[in-house]
Amino acid sequence: MSGWQRILDAKQAENLAEFLELLRIPSISSLPAHTTAVQAAAEWVAARLARAGLERVEILPTGGHPVVYGEWLHAPGKPTVLIYGHFDTQPVDPLELWTHPPFTPVVEGDRIYARGASDDKGSMFATILAVEALLQAEGALPLNVKFLLEGQEEIGSPQLPAFMAAQRARFACDLAVSADGGQWAEDQPELTLGTRGLCALQVDVTGSAADLHSGIYGGTVQNPIHALVAILAELHDEQGRITVPGFYDQVHVLSEAEKAAIAAVPFDAEAYVRRLGVPELFGEAGYSTLERAWVRPTLEVNGIWGGFTDAGMKTVLPAQAHAKITCRLVPHQEPGRIAQLVAAHVMRLAPPGVKVEVTIMQNAALPYVVEANHPGNVAAYAVLEELYGKPPYLTRSGGSVPLYNLFREHLGVSTVTFGFGLPDENIHSPNEFWRVSSFRRACVAYAMLLHELAKLDVKTL
Length: 461
Ligand SMILES: [Zn+2]
Hints:
Blueprint: H1 3-10, H2 12-23, H3 35-52, E1 55-60, E2 67-72, E3 80-86, E4 106-108, E5 111-113, H4 117-138, E6 144-150, H5 160-166, H6 168-171, E7 175-178, E8 190-195, E9 197-206, E10 212-213, H7 224-233, H8 256-263, H9 269-276, H10 289-294, E11 298-305, E12 316-317, E13 320-329, H11 335-349, E14 355-360, E15 368-369, H12 375-388, E16 393-397, H13 402-411, E17 415-417, E18 433-435, H14 436-454
Parallel strand pairs: 3-6, 3-7, 7-17, 8-16
Antiparallel strand pairs: 1-2, 2-6, 4-5, 5-18, 8-15, 9-13, 9-14, 10-12, 11-13
Zinc ion binds at residues 86, 119-120, 153, 180.
């Protein structure tokens, strides 16, 4: 057994006790009343980094919730890896559904119940413990390490674009590794290769200056709700394909290997249908459900409103109708271009008799992917295979993580996702928990990963 492993084993109880300390800090980033708690979590993390042997540890202001930095740069010629994680949490409401108070952590069997335990204080803390164990056992790290641990992930990291642009030199590295992620199951690893991008629009349809009497005026003017739903109905064909001209032009065509990797992930359609409570599945023709969720773009109407919706009836001809639309995007679609294409198509579909306006919202994210054969992913794959005794599934996340694109844009590096949450751990929900077994595994996995990454030639990254 390696020295670092002995240290992690010997310190299990101590590390768990410390983890509970971190979980007691109610670092909810979205609530202004918790700003000092997010700061307190930053101070806790900074102190812990320093005690682990990291140097130049600092709490960096961002204009919002802070970023904690630390480094160990005494491995000349070896890669420099940026370790990312977050110590802020989601809010806890509805509080009455929690069986334990969310910031009073409780260990029950293999489960550690607390808000933030799985997302992402657990995997984040494991990275620090792994580095500490390596430093204590070996007197040095096998490569150079920088930490970027943030307190605003759960609100979309609003200050980080400007922060990263201003801090390029400090965070210069060869590869980023994100501890914000998960595994497929307790006995099945996964390697997440990418996330989808996003663009958002609002459509506003206006007819008359005010709501009209539908008896006196009905049949003589265009109804804005009719106009809106006619437009929206034209955005997909019966096969589930998006009809916006040019929408699919830049979409990356999956290679046979990419298709095979997704097909290798088991998918239980019946369980999926049951879990969602839908009568049956529907989606773009020619693609599997996992392909639709991971590697195909979507256009979804998120909300629609206008006219009279209270109980009873009102013979009104509404003056306005509105809809919100978001698109999930895949490589190599550009959010700004796609939003323009959708807006132009909506305008083309506008019927006579109403005024149609489209507003492109600021919230946008680029799609993100790192190839499975990127040396960082190859290293992570090898570690996961050794730890679990079986190869990881190659997966995608259908969601959007803007930060990985910031690392690519400002630091020119790819991000390997290497986290140890599990899908049943109620993240963002009541009774969030993490597993004691995942905690141990995450520490070991990070120590192994740093050794594996140390073997890489900087020039290949
Ligand atoms: Zn997270």
